[in-house]
Amino acid sequence: MFKKILLAVATLIATMGFAFAQVDVNKADAAALDSVKGIGPVKSKAIMEERKKGDFKDWADLEKRVKGIGEKSAVKLSQAGLVVNGKPLDGAPAATAPVAKADKATDKAAAKADKAAAKAAKADKAATPAAPAK
């Protein structure tokens, strides 16, 4: 029983590293915007300042109002998970999950949990008496 629970926890931790959340330019705070590859503190501040004037209607509106965001950077930002009103840039390749520091920590935790599960399974097997031979 313990072995099954430990295995389930290890699996859950391992899959968490692959979760990918999109960041909506109209809803995200500065920290969430900074988490998108290609957006740093300067660009997130510019986005937040422009957003005070009103939400971005679409990608064209974002490109027009925020200095430093043009066609090429919009494609890259969309690939990195940025969306406008829940929509990625039309024609941009599908978003890919970035490998963040948190993902690396999660991978280490998953590896540690896997080792613990293997050790528990080995101990469980050793504790189980062998069936008599016929």
TrEMBL record:
Extent of Basic and acidic residues compositional bias: 113-125
Signal peptide: 1-21
Disordered as annotated region, ranges: 113-134
Gene Ontology, cellular component aspect: type II protein secretion system complex
GO biological process, alphabetically ordered: protein secretion by the type II secretion system
Protein's name in the database: DNA uptake protein
Protein origin, superkingdom: Bacteria
Assigned keywords, A-Z: Signal
Organism: Duganella vulcania
